[in-house]
Every structure is written in C-alpha cells, then in structure tokens.
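Hi team,

Filling in the usual template for the complex we talked about on Friday. All components are listed, including any nucleic acid strands or ligand strings, so the model treats them as one assembly.

SUBMITTER: L.P.
PURPOSE: interface mapping
COMPONENTS: two
RESIDUES: 322
SEQUENCES:
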Amino acid sequence: MRKTLIPMFTCVAAMLLAGCQTNSRDQILQANSSQVQLRSYQTRAFDTVDREKTLRTVIATLQDLGFVVDKADATLGTVSGTKLDGYQMRMTVSLRPRGEQQTLVRANAQYNLTAVEDPLPYQGFFESLSKAMFLEAHQVD
Amino acid sequence: MKRTHHSRNSLAAQVAIALMATTGCQQGVPPEALQLTSESLQQRQLQTRYFETDDETLVLQSSAAVLQDLGFNLDESETDLGVIVGSKDRDASEAGQIAAAVTMAILFGAYMPVDEKQKIRASLVTRPAGAEQTSVRVTFQRMIWNTDGQISRAEFLEDAVLYQEFFDKLSQSVFLTANEI
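RESULT (copied from the run log):
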C-alpha cells in the first residue's frame, strides 16, 4: 500500500511543480475571469470629454507610478507603459467616449508572465488617476 | 502501530501537496505597484523641469536632439501628446563582477554568469503648463542580461545626478533655462 502511495504522490507533486498548463498555446486567447467581470474591474467613467487632457493626465499618472511610457497614440486614444522594479509590469490604458459627457478609461496590466486580474491593483491605479484628473472615477456596470 | 505511521506519512505528503497547490504558479502583484507613495512627488520633482516657452514642438525637437546626442535611437513618438521614447543597447560588463567570476572559476572551478549587455530606455513627455510654460518629464529604466541570456536586473534609474545632467544638456539645446518645480 505504502509503496504505491509514494510514487503516486511524487507524480502528483511533480505535475504541480511543473505548472498548471498542458498546452502553452492555450494562453493566446485565455482569460481567467469572465469578460464582463474583468471589464468592470478595469474600467471607470470620468465626467469629461476632453480627450487630450485625459490622455496627458493618464501619461502623467503612469509616470508618477514609476512607469516609463512605451507608446502613446492620440488618434486611437491609447497609452502603454512599462514598470521595472525587480519585476516587470506592463500596462495599456485606452479611452473611449461614453455618451455626451463622459469618457471611459480602461486599463489592463500584466505582471511578469501573468495577467493582472485582481481588482485591487486597478483600484489603486484609478485612485491615482482620479486625484490627477481632479475628477471622480465612476464605477461602470 | 504500523498503520498510524503510514497514515501520518500520507498526511504529511498531502499537506505538502496542498501547500504547493496554493503557492501555485502565480506570484501576486505587490500592493504598492499601482499606488502613489510618499516618494512619488519627490521623483516627479527630480524628473521634471519647466521652460519659459509655450512652444511645445520646439521643446520636443530639442529633446529628441539631446536623446540623439546621448546615443539613443527613437522607438516611438507622438507629437500630439508630447511623447518621445528612445532606447540604446550597451555593454553592461563590470570589472568587479568579471574579477569575482574569474576568482570563483580558479579557486572553486565554479561557473558564475556575469552581466553582459543592457538596454537603457528613456521616455520623455512634454506638457503645456500654465501660460507661456512647458514642462518636460524624463524617465529612464534599464534591463541587464547576463552571459546566460537571463535578465539579471530590471530597474528604474533614480540617480539625481543623471537627471540633473540630462536637463543641463536639454537647456543648452533649447537655449532656455530649465527651471525646477
């Protein structure tokens, strides 16, 4: 009995150590959380239609948080940045008008080799952004 | 007796597996990663200067010229938002590290990878600041690869002297004094 148990546990332990995936190609279109839930973590609405000012404030906020800006596109309304601090964190922020009076700001981030799907880091980002915008960040349903 | 011994063993194995499963393949994001800290303002002051002009394009052109003077190649630029991104690949070997690696090899026959190359990135952002003023904020970071091809260091450059020197060069280039915040 004991003789069979040990190899069995070793095998299970080895599988756990080796990681959680069987095919690394699955990562291409993978998202762990549901799309709707993820969007609500990553999105806030601001009461402004000044796109350029919002983009410039997003850039300034990323810089305040220690990111180095990689790319910015005024036409598309996107900004990407990388933070190196013993780890590598990449973040892309995009803007989209919402109705006549609001702008939606969406952020997504990766931390080393994983997607950031925890609501807390995004909350931190939007708090910082909201301070820099002098505007409240509204939760979007 | 034999039976209890066995169940204790398998319990220990199960606990070990449960621990491994919970630590899993994920590392959490450090809580301070996306939060402003007390150092954020200090960093901003270090990295920002004001020029007495409302000509943002002039400041951007001068900044691009300074980056080129320093050997950076421009990777990205977006003049509508005042963003320029540049990088350079350089040697990262340091005499001290090589000496240590050689000593290890001679004394213990041990192999120790040393830093080989680095990529330095600079990102510069201009912004209209009030009447007749334009602010410039520059940030530097670098990644170092060792002789095994692994990233041995990934860091933000915080050295005050570095930023001071950069702005000295920029104010010469733009023919204007760089004012601190």
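MY TAKE: Chain B has one domain: 48-174. The beta strands of chain B are 48-51, 73-78, 83-91, 115-128, 134-146, 151-156.

Thanks, L.
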